[in-house]
Amino acid sequence: MKKWFVMSLIVALFIISACGGANKGGNTEGAGNATNAPANNTAAGNTNEGAADAEDITPEEGASLLVWESKEERPFVEAIAKEFTEKYGIEVRFEEVGAADQVTKLTTDGPAGLGADVVVFPHDNLGRAVTAGLVLPNDFYEEKSKSENSEIAVNAVTYDGVLYGYPRSIETYALFYNKALIKEAPKTFDEIVEFAKTFNDVPNNKYALMWDVGNFYFNYPFISTGGYVYGDNGQNKDDIGLNTEGAISGVKYYGSLKNSILPLNSGDITYDIKKGLFTGGTLAMDINGPWTIADYKNAGIDFGVAPLPSINGQPASSFSGVKAWYVNQFSKYPQAARLFASFASTKAAQLKDFELTGAIPANIEATNDPSVQSNEIVKGFVAQFNQSTPMPSIPEMGNVWSPIAAAFADVWNSGKDAKEALDNAVQQIKDANNGAAAAK
Q: Residues 111-114: contacts with CB within 8 Å, 24+ apart?
C-alpha cells in the first residue's frame, strides 16, 4: 500500500478522463542558512492561474533546477516545466525516479549534492524525510498552499506542526458497484447485510461485497467509528486510539460481517479473486482504489463508484494519501525550487496534471472544476476523500501494520473478542514505539 499503486492509478484515471529548514531531527542548518532564506519580489506579470500575483519569491541569479518524478508523470512535468522556464527564464531538467523511492534516494544523494532540487513523494514518507533533515518547510508560500488546497491534504503534508509539502494530488479507496446487479450504492453496511440475504449464493461464488479483509489499509473504516491510529492528526506516537470504545465497537461489527455477507477466511480473498468475480458478474460490490478502474472498464462492466457505507451509524473514513512537491534541504537554489514547487501546484497546474495523467487534484477549486466534476467515477473518489483520514506520516506508523493486521485476522478468522485483540495489538505497538525511542 505504501507504493500507492501509482502506475495503475495514473493509467486508470487517464483512461477515464480521456473517455468523457528546522526539522524534527534537530538539523537547523537549512532554516538558518542565508542562501535558503526566502526573499520576495513583485511579480505583476505572473499569469499562471492560482499563483501569487502580488508577490513571488526571488530566485537566485543563474539558477537551474533538477526535478525528480516517475515516468508516468513525465507529460505533466515536462509541460509545466516548459511554462515555468518561459515565465521565469529558469531551466528545469527532469529525471525519472519513482515517487515511492525518492526519500530513500534523497537520503544519500541529498547530502552528496546529487539530489533533485524539487522532489515529490507520498505523504506517508514525510516523517522519514523530515527526521533525516532532507526537506525544507513550505514557508514562503505557506498561507497560499493552506488556503487553496483541501484541509485534509494540507494536514497530510504537515509534520510536527510545520507545513513542508506543496499539495498536488490525492488518493483513497471507495465502493465500486455493478449497476447490473445493484442499481444504487447502499448508504449503510446494514443495507448490504440485507441485500446479501437474497443475493449471496456461496456455492456459485455469488457475494454481495468483498474487500481485502486481512489488510489494515482497507479495514481502517472499522476503526474510524470512534477510533484512530495516532492522535494529534497522526503525529503523536504516545496517543494510540486503536482500542477506544468506538474502535472496539467497529471491529466487533467487522467480525459479524463474516457470517452475514462474506463467509470466507481472510487468506481466501485476493485482488485477483475479487476482480474475477466482479468482472464475471457474481460480485455486486468491491471496496477498492482507482487503480482498479482500468480492469473493470476494460471488462465492459457498467459500474459506479460511491463513498463507503456508514458503519454503526457513523461515517466510514478511509485511509488516504497525498502526493506533494518538496524542496530539497541541500538544494543550491532553494528559492528557485520554492518558486517551482508553488508554480507546479496551483489550480491551473493541477488541472493540467489531471488532463494529462488523470491525477485527482488536491486544490479545492480544481476539484470543483467542470472537467473533474463531469467525471462520475472521479467524483465518487473525491467524495470519499472528503471524509478520509491521511495515513500517519510519523516513522512509528511502521510499528502499526503487523500487530493491527493480526488483530483483525484473529477477529475475522477465529472469532476472537475485539477488545482483547485490539488491546493486545496496542500493547505490541507501544512496546515497539518505546523500543524505537530507546534505540534513538
A: 111/330, 113/330, 113/332
How do residues 11-39 score in pLDDT, each as one tens digit? Answer: 344 444 444 433 333 333 333 333 455 65
Q: Are 118 and 326 in contact (CB under 8 A)?
A: yes
Contacts of 395 (CB under 8 A, 6+ apart): 127, 128, 131, 436
Q: What is the pLDDT of residue 321?
A: 92
CATH number for the domain running over 6-171+321-390: 3.40.190.10
Q: What pLDDT is attached to residue 46?
A: 39
Q: What is the pTM of this model?
A: 0.79
Q: How many residues does the chain have?
A: 440
Domain with CATH 3.40.190.10 in the chain: 6-171+321-390, 174-317+400-439
Q: How far is the first Cα of the chain from the last one, in angstroms, to the nearest whole number?
A: 27
User: Are 286 and 292 in contact, with CB atoms under 8 Å apart?
Assistant: yes
Half-sphere exposure of 159 (CA within 13 A, CB side): 30
The rounded Cα 43 to chain-centroid distance in angstroms is: 33
Which residues fall within 8 angstroms of residue 57, CB to CB, at 6 or more apart?
Answer: 38, 39, 40, 41, 140, 141, 335, 338, 339, 342
- Residue range 174-317+400-439 in CATH 3.40.190.10: yes
Q: Which residues pair with 177 in a beta bridge?
A: 285, 304
Beta-carbon contacts of residue 89 (< 8 Å; ≥ 6 apart):
none
**Contact criterion met (CB below 8 Å) for 13 and 128:** no
Supply the mean pLDDT for the chain: 88
Q: What are phi and psi of 163, to 5 degrees?
A: -80, 125
